[in-house]
Each structure stands twice: as structure tokens, then as C-alpha cells.
Fold:
Amino acid sequence: MSVHPRLRRLFAADGACFDVAIDHGFFNEASFLAGIEDIGAAVTTIVDAAPDAIQLTVGQAHHLQDRPGAHKPALVLRTDVANVYGKTLPNPVFSQLIADPVEQAVRLDAACVVVNLFLIPKQATLYHQCLANIAALKSLGVEWILSVSAVGSLREDYAPLHLVIPDQLVDRTKCRPNSFFADGMVAHVSFADPFCSATSDLLEAAIRDLGDIPYHRGGVYVCIEGPQFSTKAESRLYRQWGCDIIGMTALPEAKLAREAEICYATIACVTDYDVWHASEEAVSLELVVANLTRNVANAQRILRAVAARLPADRADATCDCSSALANALITDPSYITADLRKKYALLLGKYL
Ligand SMILES: [Zn+2]
Structure:
């Protein structure tokens, strides 16, 4: 059965999707807790504002789905459970994948599911849980990841509000776990071409067909750790290295996707000229957010177009992502214990 009719419910007639998440309880931000104690009333308020979609948990979804009428926001089902809301902030925070998330989503008539990747200071365990949740969803047949990120430009002709489909990465992250392999299991996947070229082709075709968005195919994306923006010296250095755009996302996602044999491609939305440009104003959060908002609408139109172009059968894809681990395992199979086989069955089951 095609997934496209279900996904189309996410989008308004103009191709945009305004999705409101009212399921959040943590982020170390106390003010986020106010006003959502009564989730039923909160859902009513949001429905009255008529967004295209509302993100809720399994326990909250009935507040939306029990409402009569066909014209209501689509349900985006959150696939994890986390800390219960309360007057004081929970610590530590957690994110646990629900059982059978896709089956539950179908049962609740959700338009799609969403998985969170929380990166909260001093909550390393939470981050690891999120990675495990993403890995678990892999077992449900996730084959493509299309990511959208805001980047600074390191070259004149990649101007603000242009889109870039990058084809190379330089990893300048410092403290992000970037592999599923540990505990004596050693695998080296090929990462010479870090983005899936076939999926990038689909992104380019969709942008070209839309016809009204300036874009560039190819570019070196330098991924920095952040959260601070780069210094002028770093920005000049990255330009000398041949980097074209700079951002804080794409890694470790691209590496983990390759290890999970998932196709991964990125639409990078240029928001600014970073800090190297002499005549442009230096990057500020205000500028990034203003341009990001304008880019988001374009990104949504592109994702909608690409979703309709993904091959129904991955065997029809022209890339090698689905067999990235075929020759990557270094550990001698005779040293792989039963426990390790069980632990890595999801990634390596078809090879061991
Ligand atoms: Zn691929």
C-alpha cells in the first residue's frame, strides 16, 4: 500500500505544513510547562487555530482523533514517552520508545510518526536513549532520511535564501557519539561519499520541477560542534579548506544512517554569510531565524514533492546504501558471542 495518501494529509493546498507540537514537557525550560496541564483544553485551543498537523503522544492522541468532522489537523504521533509534566522540572529526563509505534500510529489514524533527538546539556543518557530509539525505528523499515538544516555560506555565490544539496562533509564535531559499534564489535563503513547520491538526485529533481527556488547541487558542509557560531579565524580557515557551507547538524546523523544502511540526504538552507564576509552583517540569531522561516516554506514544498518520488521498492534505488555493512565488519566472526549477535541483530543480522 502506498504511504503517499497518508503523508499528503500533512500538507495544506499550498504545499506547506504547519505542525504544532504540544507534547513537550522538558528542555530544561520551566516556562514550557505552563498552560498544558489540561491537554484536552490545549488541543481544543490549537485545533481552533487550524494548523495542518498536531504532534501528540499515544495517550493524548484521542483528544484530537475523537473530534468529529473530516477537516481537522492531521495527527503526528510521537514515538516515545518521556517525563510526566509537573510543577517542578524532572531530572534526569528520559525518552523511551513506545511498543509497536507504527502499528499504534496506524490504529490511531496518524499521518506520520516522529522520533526525537534531544541534545540537552548534562543529559548524555537521554541523548543515547534517543539514538537507540532511532535505531529501533530502523527495524520498522525506515529506508530514507531527508534532513533539512540551516547553514551559513562560506562562498559568495551560495547566497542567503539559496538551497544547497551538499555532497561532502568535514567533521568538526567534538563530543557526539558517532557509531553504533562498540563493545568489541568493529565495523568500518565506507563514508567517502557521505550523502546518498540517489536521494540527492530526487531532491534536485523536486527542486528543479518547482522551478522557483535558487539552489546549488554539490558543496562541502563543515559541521561544527557549536552551540556557539564560529570565530572569524575559523570561518576563514574553513574557506581555505574548500568548505562551502557551515552548520551544526548533519553529523553524527549521516554516519549513523550509513551504519544503519539508511539513505541520507540533506537540503541545506543558507541563512547568512557566517562571519567571514566583509560587507555583510555578521551572523546573528535574529538573522538566522528570519531567513530560516522563509526557507522552511520552501523546504516543506520540496519534501512533499520528494515523498511522492521515493521508489516504492528500495530494490529500485540506484545507490549502495542498503548494503553499506556488507564488507564493513572487521571483527572475526569466531569472536562474536551470542550476546553480541543478539545486540547487533538489527544491524548485522543478515550478515552474521
Ligand atoms: Zn542511498
Notes: The radius of gyration is 21 Å. The domain at 143-352 is CATH 3.40.50.1580 (Rossmann fold).
